[in-house]
Amino acid sequence: MASIPDAPVPAESTDLSTYPTTTLQQIGFFIIFFFPALALLVVSLRVYSRFSARTFGWDDGFIVAAMITALAEASCSYVMMKLDFIGVHTWQIPPVPPTERPWSQVWSYLVIMLYNPQLGFVKSSVLFFLLRIGGHKPGIRWSIHALNVCNILLMISVFVASVFTCVPINKYWDRGVPGHCNNEGLQYIVSSSITVLTDILVVILPIRIVVGLQMPMRLKMGLTFVLTLGIVVTIVSILRLIWLIDYHYGDLFQNPDFSYDIRFVYSSVECNLAIICASIPALSSLLKRWFPHFFANLTKTSGGRRTFFFRHREGDNRTAVTSSDQFQTSSHVIRTFGGGTIVVKDLPASPLSGSYPCSPLYLQPRGDGGESDEEGVLFDIYNIRKTTKFDVSYNDAGSVRSGDLARSASKFRYQQSMSALSSE
User: Fold this and answer.
1) Residue 306 forms beta bridges with which residues?
2) Could you give the CA distance from residue 67 to residue 52 in angstroms, rounded to a whole number?
């Protein structure tokens, strides 16, 4: 192989354009900027959707924190790749010992500090989102809280361990300073392994939640697919773990062209894919607004009928009711997920009585103007109940105010209302 003259660039030049580069390194630059840009677009749509619906919550706050950290990491990664000649052939690297290039180690240190919190922020965002859609069951709620606490404690402990990899801290980039450093390879591999484990747990939990929801199978399958997109992130995490093992304990440096390798970008891909996958489920309200017919079709069964589910208060049996002629004579109307209506018969007993056996559930956003982030979560129609308990107020002049009854007619109307209720 022909030798290429050393690049005439000082080791600590601030003009990054004078450093040698290759096509492989340029591909690495594209990756570390493309994925954050895509993640920024998705997060921006998510924030717009939540603010427009006035449903901005903890899950959105954590994802915004992760996005800010990811953008900072992208900038630091670019400088690090340049100063460390990542993706450049070894014979293009100036013959300067790493100990004389402390600034490259400073940027490497910053990248490590920014990488670890990102995944912790994303996982907390996912877990808070799961509380929104499935946190009503005590068992699932406590599982989410327990996993979130473990995630936050892991994030803090890994961050602290990374900050104090070397004591004093500046020994990390200036090995001539007296002090000591941890076994970096072992530290990074252990923390990465735990990260993969928590990734798997965060992927499994949504499946447990969706299985317990009452909805058409087509919609359930779609929701499961969206909530488990994190599997892709887990795969990238495993690839990154393999690279770390090869970098610290493998024979990577036995390769005469070891620097011609851009697997470093796994970190950027992993973090930004995590942000994207965590944000897609939260875009449901915006996507429903843009593609209403697609989401309406998700609730259709064969034959074009929509299926509704009734939850028995005693036991777990479910009864499916479809739109048919036998219900057309009733006065009760339920609005469907797709925006249509279905008429059902009078209910067997008053919701106020303890004998009422079941309550209809339908796919409809909770009451925030139809733009809730929990579209598709089953809503209990009997959260609105009829009652015989009410207050009557009067004014001195005997005139009727908005919401009041006139003194002269109040007694008659009260008796008439009670008669109507008793006749039911």
Assistant:
1) 300
2) 20
Q: Is the pTM of this model over 0.70?
A: no
Express each pLDDT in 31-49 by its tens digit.
999 999 999 999 999 999 9
Output phi, psi for 358, to 5 deg.
Answer: -155, 165
Determine phi and psi for 346, rounding to 5 degrees: -60, 145
**pLDDT tens per residue across span 188-211:** 999 999 989 988 988 888 887 777
Task: Answer for the pair 140, 82: CB distance below 8 angstroms, yes or no.
Answer: no
Amino acid at 335: R
Which two structure tokens, joined as six digits, stand for 77?
A: 């990664």
Tell me the C-alpha distance between 86 and 259, whole Å: 6
CA separation for the pair 86, 107 (Å, rounded): 13
As a CATH number, domain 16-290 is 1.20.1070
Backbone angles phi, psi at 287, to 5 degrees: -70, -35
CATH 1.20.1070 occupies which residues in the chain? 16-290
Pair of tokens at residue 229: 């997109």
Q: What gap in Å lies between CA 303 and CA 322, rounded to an integer?
A: 11
Q: Are 322 and 310 in contact (CB under 8 A)?
A: no
Rounded Cα–Cα distance for residues 296 and 32 (Å)? 38
C-beta of residue 10 within 8 angstroms of C-beta of residue 247: no
